[in-house]
Design brief:
single chain, mainly alpha, 3-stranded antiparallel beta sheet, 9 helices
Amino acid sequence: MSGAALEQLRGMLKEIAVPQLAVSKENSPIKPESFPAFSSQALAGYSGDGAKSLLRPAIDKARAALWAVSPLEAPTELRPDVGKLKTLLPRQLDRGLIQQQLEAPADAGKEKEFKTQLFNKEKPLSRIVKFLTDALEELQNTKDKRQQEPKRWQANYDYVQARLEMQLASIIEYESLLGAMRKDLPPRDPKLHNGWRLTAQEKLQGDPAGKKQAASAQTHLDKMIQDYAGTPWEELAKRDRQVPLGLEWQPAKLK
């Protein structure tokens, strides 16, 4: 990919930069160098920096909501808005939204205390779900403007919408797993495992609301693959299409 093409791609990706999903261990940003070369013909209809876009304010607001629930540092241009949004959210976000591993109670007498801790972890998640649901609905309220926009901003809208749905699905799934754990602790061999580690799986097993968001996200990503063939948005949709949104606890030997 030529230097000019790389700079063009970097500009496109900057407009839709969002954090990795809260369940992901991969926190490095997507690098333009990891993309295949795109033909100038395929990108010809995707010019424009969005200065006059009617959708851009709504897209940026939705992106700010995603960055607000992430412990990662937001892009410079979004930091003022992200900072304001963080004041509306639980302080636990500073340590990360989803805990990747949990240490089992030392003995049966500690199980009640452990389940109380789970409840305290679960409580703020409902606020996060509502926060992101409101952000998604606010973005979708601008849908009537979408058809009036250049194709580049239609693609940006579609991608950010799908990422909001994916993040919602993963948080609802995690919230469901904590709730299930409060009822019955996942199986483990105490001689081998002193806790559980969160692992990804394709099938969601939690609340139907999470499954609904996941299905909607996959539908939107599939449509992006068709509508934006040969462009960075197709590549982004293909990558996200492979991200499993289901979760489960696996017994583990924690250090």
